[in-house]
Amino acid sequence: MATLSVSKVPSRHLPVVATFALFVLTFGAGSVSFENFASGQVFANLFIDNAHLIVLAVGMTFVILTGGIDLSVGSVLALSTMIAAAGVKAGWPVPLVIVVVLLTGSVLGLLMGLMIHKFDVQPFIVTLAGMFLARGLCFVISIESISIKDKGYRALGMDRIALGGGVSITNNVLIAVAVLLAAMYVLHLTRFGRTVYALGGSEPSARLMGLKVGFTKVGVYVVSGFCSSLAGLVFSFYTASGYGLHAVGMELEAIAAVVIGGTLLAGGSGYVLGSVVGALVLGTIQTIISFDGTLNSWWTKIVIGALLLAFIVLHRLIVRRSSA
Amino acid sequence: MTEPVVDMRGISVEFPGVKALQGVDFRLFPGEVHALMGENGAGKSTLIKALTGVHKPTGLIRLRGEEVSFHGPGQAQDAGISTVYQEVNLCGNLTVAENILLGREPRRFGRIDGRATRRRAAELLERMGLAIDPGSVLADHPIAVQQLVAIARAVAVECQVLILDEPTSSLDAGEVAELFRIMRVLRDEGVAILFVSHFLEQVYEISDRMTVLRNGRLVGEYRTAELSRLDLVSAMLGRELSVLEELEQQTHPVDERAVLLRATGLGRKGAVEPFDLEVRAGEVVGLAGLLGSGRTELARLLFGADKADSGTLEFDGKPLHLRGPRQAISAGIGFCSEDRKAEGLVADLSVRDNLVLALQASRGWTRPLSKRTKDELVEKYVAMLDIRPATPDTPIRNLSGGNQQKVLLARWLVTKPKLLVLDEPTRGIDVGAKAQIQKLVAELAAEGVAVVFISAELEEVVRVSDRVVVLRDRRKVAELRGTDVDEVMAHIAGGRAAA
Q1: CATH of segment(s) A9-323
Q2: Within the 252-271 window of chain A, which residues sit less than 8 Å (CB to CB) from chain B?
Q3: Where in chain A are the domains?
């Protein structure tokens, strides 16, 4: 005994590899079906149009890795667009608006995390409450959509950065990529990040191992809250407006991106990079449907549903194989 | 001997209504393996928890001569007391190196130094003589290796006291040998090891000294070499073995009744070794053995609560393939679990609903029982078993343990079973209820029901049973007819004592 060192690395990475393959497949299918699909700008647009979803999915990955769930992200995103739009309209300086928005999201995440940890309530219920609360607060600010007219603020969202070859991206893409890199660093190279994985593996064990269980558990909701409000800023750059009905149901899209990205809903296994590719897969399907022009946009949901089922089954099979 | 590293004096722990430990002394010396022995409820875990700061005891605890009082396992760990539990308390999704060092891994400016982590883990594994790749994922290793990794984590801190709480319960013989090898390495380095196990063989193989507890009190501290197995068992079970001579097999007339259940080579890996067993109609067969001897596991195989991986079962003359309890129930086998809270009762349902549950289940949901039939049944059995309060609408969690047990029994009685398997039906209930249940078992047998009866109390098993099957270390070691407590105890102790 004790000489068993079979490397099973492939089985750990398999879901992410599958997600990559799926992305290549869907993008390839689009390229074959439509002229002009296989262009650099279409690819760049995937990032531009889904930057907010990428940021949400990264925050959601932290939470799901611990075995939790955050249903509030869509509403917090909407609330953030509202605060940003109302703040800009009231003449606050843009840096202040950004700080206030990010603080609001982080504090909401902190409160939900504390509720979950201190009172030992299921994350589902607490973040469901957070979802209603944030959505309701949007309409306290205004029932109407508020458009952002401040030139400086609009410039943040509209300015293009040329990448050469006629392809350009927006600041939002840079933000999304920065968030991704930061999350990868934190999850894999810091004690907090490794504790996130440990928590998802087994919370009682993590506790008995003397890890900072409480800090980490609350921490992931702060990360998710921060990401939600940052996604709100990204969304307000993108749409130049704040509205209480922005991003309705987007929490579920974020969860779908994470699951399709290969993260186990039970926690403990998965990668942020997978979640980002998962978000891109969702974006590609949307792009294909808009290229087609005849299909109803609800087809996106149907395809997402089918993919989710396929990936959950894939997970099961992998788990069963490696435990056999 | 040198100074004890741990010296506990007059330790008492009290829970509401229960004195879990009363004035227990315990000493642990550096460089020894010390076994803590006792049956279920003797206070072993409570003593460990008092030492590691989980419970707040009264009394005095000295660590290396200094008085200490811990407020949790974390503090105890910092002071050099590490615990490895029965269940592997590690994270299977992380690597071996991370599991050993998580929370203490080398860092540079807050960034984990992966290479240094793996190197330090490799050093620790080498010290223990374990040839596994520190970069591999923990869950890919067998449970025994995971257990050893847990020990590596425990000794990664400057650990002077290592507590192993039933580390061997899920290991096979080869794995136990590996564990013992490592325990000896650590012992020779001067680590004091506190070892809890239900397997007498293992305790005699590895321990230098032992402390025996019974019912929360100290029975004594012994040198292993000077304590015979028989004396150990009698210390644990609390009965002086006054006379123990070679007992003649007493002959009883062989029962003429038909064999109801015949198990041939039935077994389950890691639970109970293959065994043969016959139970006749109207016969009470007792299962005796220490906790962890396989008595519960055997009972669960008979009911299909766990699936046997070898052997065959014949019931009422026909082969019976149990894929789960459902087949057992429809064949006419009833089972009262030892854990009546988790595996028996539905706490929030009423006495009535709990009582008719199994009957309804055996009829299938398409043929509901009428309210009148239910009421008649409930009234009959409440009176027959003297269940109190006699109000069928009371939620069952409000009943005392003894009455809950009676409801559970009644649940099976209404299905008119041919065989009842009762796993510790009298545990934790008062004397009066105990006597009633014993009487009921005898009455059932007289009516022709076969009963398999498990109890930790030998006297009860002997009194109730026609035949006693003795289990030791997950093996059926004897089948005794018309026996007495001394003889059963001798077989439980095993080894030379039974010869």
Answers
A1: 1.10.3470
A2: 268-269
A3: 9-323
